[in-house]
Design a protein that fits this description.
514 residues, alpha/beta, Beta-lactamase, D-tyrosyl-trna(Tyr) Deacylase, Chain: A, 3 domains, five-stranded antiparallel sheet, five-stranded mixed sheet, 12 helices, 23% strand, globular
Length: 514
Amino acid sequence: MRRTSASLVAGALVAALAWASSPSLPAVALDPSAGVADLTQDINQILADSRLTIARAGVVVKSAQTGEELYATDAGKLLIPASNTKLFTSAAAVETLGLDYRFPTTVLSSGRRAGSVLAGDLVLRGTGDPTMLAADYDALAKEVAAAGVKRVTGRLVADDSWFDTQRLGNDWAWDDETAYYAAPISALTASPDTDYDAGSVVVAVAAENGKVKVTTTPPTDYLKIVNRATVGTATDVLIERQHSSRTVVITGTVATSYREWVAVDDPTAYASSLFRDALTRHGVKVLGPTVTGAAGSGATELARHESMPLGELLVPFMKLSNNIHAEILTKAMGRKAAGQGTWSAGLKVSTDFARANGVQVINMRDGSGLSRRDGFSPASIVQLLSAVRSKPWFQTWYDALPIAGNTDRFVGGTLTSRMRGTAAANNVHAKTGSLTGVTALSGYVTSADGEPLIFSIMLNQYLSSSPKDIEDKIAVRLAQFSRATATTDAVQLRATETGATGDLECSWLKPVQC
């Protein structure tokens, strides 16, 4: 296994609790009323926070063991979920594609071979693999050379026809167009790192010999760098790609090194440029230009690369709340179910899956939650979380959720710095969600009695700084919940530092990780 390696998955498994669906869990003798009144009182007190006076708050808590609803307020109201949308996308993807699903990227020849000469086109065909690195394109080029091809008389054809040509999601904000967390979606793409931020390049600056030096990861001349930055006594630098272009303008002052993740304008062209450069390094010369098109039916395979299985990809996808993974999986579902790699086809798969599992209030406009027209109710999220517990893939999916307070980034994920030192630490497995004026936390927690609970907390339309601490306080209270004894006096309704997350997902604020 590569990159999202067995060690990362094992780390998640070690950190995960033997939760919920395991028949070996000891039975808990439950009193249906004891402690619930205290829980209700405490959650009401937490939600009485002045920051929520003008906001909307929907909260549902349910016992996974008995099905009893322990707490609910505005349970059926349609609220913006932000990245809680990924709960639906990921579950539908695992159900539809399977944990063993892999994305193949292939190189094909569509002409006649005469010794080391290919009289025809060389085709690079993708199916959406978000884990493709420059090194993987280099490996494909090496395979082509090893197959004996040294000269291609035709063109390099970039075949991204597995998906449609709509690059940006429905309702995405125009000012996110250059942000790596809203990168364009294509069946051919590349990532700069093993977070697998597909469709982006890392642009780094450093002061060197009185000048500002600029480097990119991966090394590429695909972007046009305009460096207007100067060396200064402090680092106050802006690295920004101009809209609808390949030009990145760097301004400000640089004293220490700094990096920014920048979305490319066209991931197909970016990926094919990396591959063409790799071909050159391995002595394969393509005489024609690079074009976009589809491979012919008679094309033969020269080289192949397959991604890690979806069961492994779930870790960087869910732990780090990767938007691009969500959208690629959405289109992959559409391709599998309807033969159409489109948002509309993929979203129908996700919506049909949710409804088949009892979800009633749902409006999906994308797979990641970037759209402000996405809408779910807290009750719908809890229903989904309850229904998937019976799925054969549940444990793998559950382990891929961020785990509160765990300092291993590929275990704690977006909850790494939240709820540390509380009963919720290494207990809560939940998906975060953040947009300006929106925060959500939904998932699973084991009570002080060992009772498995399911919860969804959705806060919308607040004007304050992000009230994530309110979510944390509720989650901590659920971890301390006991039916046997009153806990109001003993409970510490607090949350530890949440990091400088502001109104975006923690992992979206690169290079800072919270």
